[in-house]
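pls read this stuff:
=====
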Amino acid sequence: MTERRQFLRQLAAGVSTLALAGCDRLTSSQHMAEVLGFGETFTRLAQDSLLGDGLAKEFPESAISPDFRANGTTAPDSQAYLDHAAAAFSDWSLEISGMVAHPLKLTLAELRAAPARTQITRHDCVEGWSGIAKWRGARLGPLIARAMPHPSARYLVFHCADTLELTLDGTGDYYETIALKDAFHPQTILAYDMNDQPLPVAHGAPVRLRLERKLGYKMAKYVMRIEAVESFADIGRGRGGYWEDRGYDWHGGI
């Protein structure tokens, strides 16, 4: 903990130095104003992550479940998704947009080249079952940092390819939201491998969110786009996720 506090002091000092060195000149540039705003946001996020909640329990490979249940949608049927799957997702890309200074569009190959983490964790479903699997994926925090979220951004919305209920207003499309700070937890990843194999379609290919201190419904599958927002009140039915719109708790913590 002492080392973490020292790191945060150094990080804060670095951001403060940048802000003070020619402050008037730097902030006259819109780009630099965005950089400084991001610095304030990143310092807050780093502090929440490093000094906040700890890691979810991780397990040895011997604990991996022989049959990890696939829940919810197991095969999206939209033509766009079917086309991506037929091409082994070689033409798929993930968009990070919304309240960010630098929107990103990343191919699966680029995600695989990004800073990554491997973890063996337990998936707990609100229905009462659980399973342990090995996940590898791009750490979400560094990707969001690259996009530079606006200081007013508070949440990330994960727009997905699956539709669980056909509705005229689009509220049957699966989506999920998390607090922006949760993206910077070290175990928050966009998983592209499961048990040392490319993520199967039934489990969310090409990438799914792994948010290990939450219940399973928070871990969105078939992620197509991530949007930084200040509020999710106007998305779906306004409660922060497909299942939350139908009565589930938004926090979804274990």
